[in-house]
Amino acid sequence: MDTFRKYLKSEHENQLTQPDWGVNVLNVGHYIHPIGKDYPDPSHPSDYYFEWSKGRVLSEYQLVYIAAGTGIFEAEHIGAVAVQPGTLFFLYPDVWHRFKPHNKTGWTEYWVGFNGSYANHLMQQDCFNPARPLIHMGFNAEFINIFIQLIDTIKFSGLGSNQLGACLTIQLLGLVYASALLKAQSNSRKMQVINNIKYSIHENLNSDISPELLAAKHNVSYAWFRKAFKEVVGQSPGQYQLNLKVQKACRMLTETDLSIAEVAYQNGFESEYYFSRLFKSKMQLSPSKYRNEFYQTVNHDETQL
Questions:
Q1: Domains of the chain
Q2: Which H/E stretch holds residue 26?
Q3: Which of 11, 116, 174, 255 could form a disulfide with 23 if both were Cys (CB 3.0 to 4.6 A apart)?
Q4: What is the dihedral of CA 187, 188, 190, 196, to 10 degrees?
């Protein structure tokens, strides 16, 4: 596909002679920015050109999709974020921003700038948030095809091009919205599965149930479970399980008169030796010394009363 860009607003084309559908397409384009060249290139109209050191503020919305290459994006509400192929980002009216491809990769970009009453309504939906302007779409053939139709519509400026351009822009926003909802649902399911597995771990602390068995009982693969668990909880399932067992052992050592061997057994450890070695690595004290120091502290506090 040939590169193309058109800035209707800058060319003072009258968009009011045709019915207003609530979304006005102000500019649209597809551009392949070459490796090692300054960005943006000087052919941008003055209303859109910016220097990296200063950034830019627009009076319109823009949807920018990076089909290939890598770069960096930064905006008023977020710090610098790496841009990978398949990433799209939104630019919001009156919000400072800047972005550029890496010199060693360049990038291929599609964009559309728009405004209007219905555009304002759409961009107030939950998934469109200036604090979260980046969404990873990945490669989406339908999304690219609609962008190409939009570019062709504006390029040839036929009868009803404004209305068709508005429809295609709404379709693009609809696909982004659907993608964001699917991602949210996926994250919601992930949280539900992990919370259910965490409950199972708590319920089986006195046994030596394996992470592989936990995954199978919840109908997920072990590879997915291990990755998802670490993303949600911040540690591996095995470490989470061990830490809970050690916490329970601490309570048993200070609240009961059970022997070290009995505490080890009731927490599902295969031997007193293994339990003591693991306990010391986690608490920096052996089980017996942990118990003794606890009692010494309690006795000292009681004598001070």
A1: 4-182 (2.60.120.280), 204-305 (1.10.10.60)
A2: strand 24-33
A3: 116
A4: 160
Nearest of 162, 177, 66 to residue 111 by alpha carbon: 66
Sheet strands side by side (includes 71-75): 78-83, 71-75, 97-101
The DSSP secondary-structure symbol of 69 reads E
CA dist., res. 29 & res. 111, Å (int)? 5
Q: 59 - beta bridge partners?
A: none
SS3 string, 103-135, reads CCCCEEEEEEEEECHHHHHHCCCCCCECCECEE
Mean pLDDT of successive 10-residue stretches along the chain, which has 305 residues:
77 49 91 93 89 95 95 93 93 97 95 94 88 87 91 84 90 89 73 83 77 88 90 85 88 91 88 92 91 78 57
What is the side-by-side order of every strand in the sheet holding 24-33?
4-7, 24-33, 107-115, 61-69, 87-91, 134-136
